[in-house]
Amino acid sequence: MKIKTPSFWYRPQGSLLSALLSPLSVAYGVGRAVHCALKSPEKLDGVKIICIGNLNAGGSGKTPTAMALLSVMQECKMARAPAFLLRGYGGTNEAPMRVDPARHNAEEVGEEALLLAAYGPVYVARDRLEGARLAAREGADVIIMDDGYQSRRLQADIYLAVIDGTMGLGNQKMLPAGPLREPISKAFARADGFVFIGEDHNDVRWQLPGDKPVFEAKTMVRDVSAPPKEGDYFAFAGIGYPKKFFAFMRNVLSLNVVMEHEFPDHYAYSAEDIDMLREQAQEQGLQLITTEKDMLQIRRLSGVDVSDILILPIYLQFQGEGALIDFLQERIRS
Fold first, then answer.
1. Domain interval for residue 146
2. Residue 91: its pLDDT value, please?
3. Higher-pLDDT residue of 224, 296
4. What are the pLDDT digits (tens) for 118-174?
5. Does residue 67 sit in the same domain as residue 125?
6. Do residues 160 and 209 both lie within one domain?
7. CA–CA gap between residue 101 and residue 98 (Å, rounded)
8. Which residues make beta-bridge pairs with 154?
9. How many structural domains is the chain composed of?
10. I need a labelling partner for 113 at 20 to 30 A (CA). Which of 23, 99, 144, 167 fits?
């Protein structure tokens, strides 16, 4: 069952529910430690693997980071045949396969796979090692792995931890009392570098290791698709942390978001959901708007008109790409 991101995860002052769940976090941490001790990730020769991950459960910008990273690598010709590798979360497919946007939908391979397929070859596999092997057999020389930071199956050559300034690290407790997938110290130790998105609204930057590079990035909107500022909007999203999407619209784009509706991450919309949203928007005279990822789920619905729903297409732009280029070139060529 898919659930929404608990709001108490992102209350720095803590909450009673978080305190009550803390014993389960201890048990979770022990379980992870045992799992890590018993399993060693396997290294795949002949291909470089870049893992883009996060410390938090839920969305923090991994997929936009993967897109931006590929763009930088292509501009600098760092790879002959780069490819993406995902687990395909939210999709039903289990066997390693290359995604074909003309044949596959979000229900089969997940929304992120279809988003990334517009930029380069995408492979999905529940077993990341087998997925990487398939990509390598089909000619990939650099694999950008979207997620898998905590995976004990496949060893990456470069680990980049993504931190979103709006979300920070939440209450800095481990699941389920907080959003962290593992202790901060272990996650920081594994990272070769950090991608920090947006402004530091949660005072996290000072915690990052001083001996590791931090690459600043900013969320941008493609100008040709920017929604009119004079509109009144009803925003909805079924992503890892919808509040980040709503805050971006209000605080960065200065849009008047009158209503908002959160769905669970990877939510499979129904025609009834769209009818409900449309009815509420029409009652208030509002314009519906959502993310590209959500629209991929909505478009799989047969016979549902989406012409009145705006999409907010975003991308990530690295600030000062020179340091990132040097960092990648040094490690890819080693």
1. 48-219+317-332
2. 82
3. 296
4. 999 999 999 999 999 999 999 999 999 998 899 889 999 999 999 999 899 999 999
5. yes
6. yes
7. 10
8. 42
9. 2
10. 167
